[in-house]
Give the backbone structure.
Amino acid sequence: MTIAEPNTSSADPAVPRATQHHPPGPPTAPAPVAVEVHDVTVAYHRKPVLWDVDVQIPSSRLVAIVGPNGAGKSTLLKAILGLVPLASGTVEIFGRSLRRARSLIAYVPQRESVDWDFPVSALDVVLMGRYGRLGWFRRPGRKDRDAAMAALEKVGMKDLAHRQISQLSGGQQQRVFLARALVQEARLYFMDEPFAGVDAATEKAIVDLLREIRRSGGTVVAVHHDLQTVPEYFDHVLMLNMRLVAAGPTEEVFTTPNLHTTYGGRLTLLDQAAEAVRRSTAPGAPR
Amino acid sequence: MNTEFWDIILLKDSTTRTVLAGTGLLGLAAGVVGSFAVLRRRSLVGDAIAHASLPGVCVAYFIVGERNFVALLLGAMAFGLLGAATIAGIRSLTRIKEDAAIGLVLGGFFGLGIVLSTIIQKQSSGNRAGLDSFIFGKAASMVASDSWTIAGVAAVILLTVGVLFKEFRLLCFDREFAAAEGRPVLFLDLLLLALITLCTVAGLPAVGVVLIAALLIIPASAARFWTENLTVMVLISGAIAVLAAVVGTIASAVIPGPPGSLSRGLPTGPCITLAAAVLFLASMFLAPRRGIVADVWRLFSLRRELALQKALTQAIDQGRGPEARP
């Protein structure tokens, strides 16, 4: 396996030379690869939950991972991040090994994965996003504090910075997690259900934030549950049901037959999705 | 008895001072590392480690042949870690759940420890070994060098926690995020476990295997009532544990034991644990904001406010006359 040095981009085999410079926003030319998942299989207690997933995720896109419960959506995210052992396969990020790409990555775990009664304030949690660059023995300083406050302001939480985290609503807690990812100053954001259980205002704030990340050249890979909003929010979609069913630009692969294969004929869901597809392909539909 | 009582209370006796310094420092270390043990949900693992260390004490005694505190401590440490490793092994290799694995290791190792210590006590009639004091703790049996050992252990624990404070904070709050950041979470988890074990075994002679885990769990749980800040919580937990250790040690020394028993006083471990439990109860009821009294008071005033509001709206509605109501 070749690991491309960060400053020898011309020698990077994963990135075609012609497509390295592309305009910001949703581009039409194929984008360079942010994540390369190669033949990944993951098993818990010898039972496979992800089977031979082989996919490339383009950069500067908002990418949704969709699929039914137990399809391995979170597991795929965790496999890419090295949080679960791979039974087989490899993962490359911007053409590098995961270990060498860590500083380019930010992560927003599922909100329910932590104890929100933990004795820390919103600001404390956001500062945790700076621990990685601080290393082992340094403590967060003025610069880190400023960065954390700026991130909290960006998600509309500046006034609640010193509030204990259990006194925040679900939407506010999710905003704190996003602010923590922002101070990681990453190029690639992995989010596990960022829209789960949030209020409408927070949902709008998150969408704006995702678009801003994309505008500045960042990539977001998010596990997403709400099929109706997929065409509106995401440029690119991975459809997963233990195996990869389809992957590509939303308008090409987010189709009724693919949804049928992914969800196996759960009608209510499919009706919703068909409605979403119809809206997204209708002339003048919001992008 | 009376003069002796005041000698202990006023710290006139140098042995009392040494023992108190030892148990006090042990309390400080236990309160600090216990905060992280509780927040990382490792409190029961700490209890299992403590019980699992008893056979280690016995094996070390078999090998050394005398009550050498450092040797016994190393034996306890080895078996405590073996117990923790057994829990982790059972959990990852089989489908037995963690709580069952903890109970299994706790019972199995402790049973072995009781059998071994009984054999030792039957064997050496002259040198009683004092192993029974490791079960419930007997601060009176501690000597000056024991206190120095405890002081060293406490220093190691406090220094490690002080240096790696933010790492432990992140580990306890969001292990997955730390792992995604590339932090060595497994190493940090094992380090925390090692500190818990170290604290546990250092406390064996004073508090005993049965109750040492209480000194990790109770002060930390009590401290949580008083603050929403982790640093403050760790400090309060340390303070509560020191207070409990000192009060418990003095109480065990001055309260007379059953008549005819050779040793004066009660076992130290239960006295320290009881003192900690009293402080916990006080915290649980009286702490501002998170305490039960404050909770009930909030509920009560909310109800009163709602009742007042309702009465006011009704009064206004009646004033308007029936046609104004929808």
Q: What stands out?
A: Residues 288-320 of chain B form one domain. Chain B has a mean pLDDT of 86.
